[in-house]
UniProtKB/TrEMBL annotation:
Organism this protein belongs to: Carassius auratus
Family recorded in the similarity comment: Belongs to the beta-microseminoprotein family.
InterPro entries registered for this protein in UniProt: PSP94 (IPR008735)
Record-given protein name: Prostate-associated microseminoprotein
Main location: secreted
Location(s) in or outside the cell: Secreted
GO MF entries: cytokine activity
Segment forming the signal sequence: 1-25
Length: 126
């Protein structure tokens, strides 16, 4: 297979993986940069090699056509407005925490996670 065809096949595989990841249940951000070099943190990478960048982003060298990168974390999308998503950058661990007190975990559906804007009333509708 000539080099141009080989690069075309690699590009199609990468684009197909982006589509698959976008269509899966957990949203993940991906991007492709045709101007990027296969280099990170002073190290050179060759065709097909991958590395992990800050922010839980995995990149793959598609030399000479560029670099493709995708988030590796699955962020929740359906949670109460008084909760927020936190991503631990070293471990890439995702947790839901209370917006008012990020030290407390937010577990939707549990009694201790009543909307804090309701104060002490926290009345249940019958």
């Amino acid at each position: 297979m000539d080099p141009k065809a080989s690069h075309g096949v690699m590009m199609m595989i990468f684009m197909a993986s982006l589509v698959w990841m976008k269509c899966s249940a957990a949203p993940m951000e991906c991007h492709f940069n045709s101007q990027a070099l296969c280099e990170y943190d002073g190290k050179q990478y060759s065709m097909g090699e991958s590395w992990m960048e800050q922010g839980c982003v995995q990149c793959t060298c598609l030399h000479p056509v560029g670099v493709g990168c995708c988030e590796t974390v699955h962020r929740p999308v359906d949670f109460p407005p008084w909760c927020e998503v936190r991503v631990e950058s070293l471990t890439c661990q995702v947790t839901l925490v209370m917006t008012s007190d990020p030290r407390q975990r937010c577990i939707p559906g549990e009694e201790n996670n009543i909307d804090p804007r309701h104060g002490a009333l926290n009345m249940k509708l019958g």
